[in-house]
Amino acid sequence: MEQKLSPIKRTIIGVQFMFVAFGATVLVPLLVGLEPSIALLAAGVGTLLFHLITGAKVPIYLGSSFAFIAPILKATELYGMEGMFCGLIAVAFVYVLMSMLVRLLGTGFIKKLFPPIVIGPVIMLIGLSLAGTGVDMAKTNWILALVSLSSAVIASIWGRGIIKLVPIVIGVTVGYVMSLIFFRDTMSFEKVAQASWFALPALNKISFSWEAIIFMIPVAIAPIIEHIGDMYAIGAIAEKDFIKDPGLHKTMLGDGIACFAAALLGGAPVTTYSEVTGAVSLTKMTDPKAMIIAAVSAISISFIGKIGELIKTIPPSVLGGIMLLLFGSIASVGISNMVKAKVDMSSTRNLVIASIILSIGIGGAIINIGTFSLSGIGLASLVGVILNIIIPEEKAQKR
Q1: Counting beta carbons within 10 angstroms of the beta carbon of residue 304, is it exposed (0 to 12), middle (13 to 18) or buried (19 or more)?
Q2: Which of 107, 110, 348, 397 lies deepest, with the highest CB count within 10 Å?
Q3: pLDDT tens, 12-36?
Q4: CA dist., res. 146 & res. 324, Å (int)
């Protein structure tokens, strides 16, 4: 049930929700070479658009998605930053297309097309494909990395209240303070001093690229399924059926339009944020107005130039320490997804699908057709969907 709070208390809680997602929202752009200020702006604008489309009925905040880190890095390498953003726009249209199909066909077809045996291994790939990046960053200063990692672990396991929901913020903060105390000589604050207090975020350019579009489209599979799970979860907490009202087609459309806006601005794709769902469960604050306040807070911070430059001074080893936990956790979510769905891994069919998805994704398989290429999570996801369609369960169980 919604709590009736004064405007001041609602504002405080709204800003708190923004900070729940703050760590991950700025971590994603730092890892892929984008501006943290743009990520905050994109998260705020995306959240406002989501609430506009859904009639401000769902208590949710949108933040940068980890599912896109590896694809963004690879697409940028292959097609450049401008081409990569074109691919992200295509991802937004996948959301819109799925929204239309849900409205016409219901949710059943999505579950048939993307069952746990496909989604589980794909989610595992999101984390495992980035594990090497985390180790490389952590080893630049193992002391800071381990301090950050330990702090995040302690916060997530033994933390109470809101502390348990912001392990990334806690880990980065402790690691950053340690770097200021013991490794200040390795840090530079020159750009922070030069930055103005008020600054318009620098937007990125976009160039059309068919190759980038085809490369990025399959990546939308995992976030779309996660979105559906979040809608069920937040509905259970709020004691409302958001699948019916405002409707899954509208919430999915809201996610898609938010991703489109983020790409146009030059930020990482934003999606309904699971950590915020946890915060809603803890605080029992199910008033969508609090999320709108969180969005406005993020937009406001994005225009403070010194904060954007200060975020960039976080040592790579501190981020690396957090990544050791974060990317492993993402892989564990994939396993948990399969366990909760009671996927039978003694089934030859399921074993084949999971094995091929993981081998293709981790092994770095790539398909080249002229100037077009498909690899990584996108290729693995597409193969998984195809295998799930062409390998009947009945035939796989025959002896």
Answers
A1: middle
A2: 110
A3: 777 777 776 776 788 888 888 888 8
A4: 9
